[in-house]
Amino acid sequence: MSQYAHPEVVVDTEWLANHLNDPNLRIIEVDVSSKPYKNAHIPGAVFWNIFTDILLPDLRINLDAIAFAKLMSQSGITNETTVIAYGSYPGIGAWIFWLLKLFGHDNVRVLNGGYQKWKSEARPLFTELSTFPAVPYHAKAPDPHLRVLHEEVQASIGRTDRILLDVRTPQEYSGEWFFDQPPKETECAGHIPSAVNIEHILTLNQDGTFKSCDELQTLYNSKGITAEQEIFPYCTIGARSGYTWFVFKYLLGYPQVRNYDGSWNEWSRLPNVAIVK
Fold first, then answer.
1. Which of 95, 96, 201, 207 lies at a C-alpha separation of 20 to 30 Å from 142?
2. What's the mean pLDDT in 162-177?
3. Which sequence positions are flagged as catalytic?
């Protein structure tokens, strides 16, 4: 992993296995349902529900610093705690990395391969629920340098110095799907004009680990994406694009990357914006 721009933020399963009892480490399982967590989770992991702990009812990411501080506090996380997140979907850990960095949490790591690799190696899994006493936590206001808003996205359409990167599935990009199914009557499917489509899972090996730096460079260069451009990834709710932000910033070291966390959930509902199918 030393090939990456910031190898210090990526840990492997052996490292985590050796640090499970570290009192300054907190592991978080993030998912849409607590059922997988209750069936089997990495020892010591606490559970965050994507819909109730991270998103608002309209599926926007909750950017309220007080709410975030409460979530961290009730998870037994202080401002000095090292946090590692994972989930059943590829890239969740790197999305949570972006979220924690957004609110100014310094000590965050990403488990390379996530739950998939941990389980494939027959490492220990627990069914007992993990709880920790609440601790003081102070969250900073969201860092505007990690986000791009829809007005700037709209102004970037067609510009060669900026890349609008759609990291959803080809079916979502083409308008065949709205997230994971055909669009309903009230849903607008498609993509932002001039956006390039590279699905986020193309950055991962079959075992869930990150591809090498050379492979990632080749993937993005094949679509004309270089470190000299500003890159604005988007997806449906800002999760897969948050993961992609991590790949560019921390694996490749690209300097100008911001997550459009409003993503398709916002863009498809805006008045007077263009949508391509």
1. 201
2. 97
3. 235
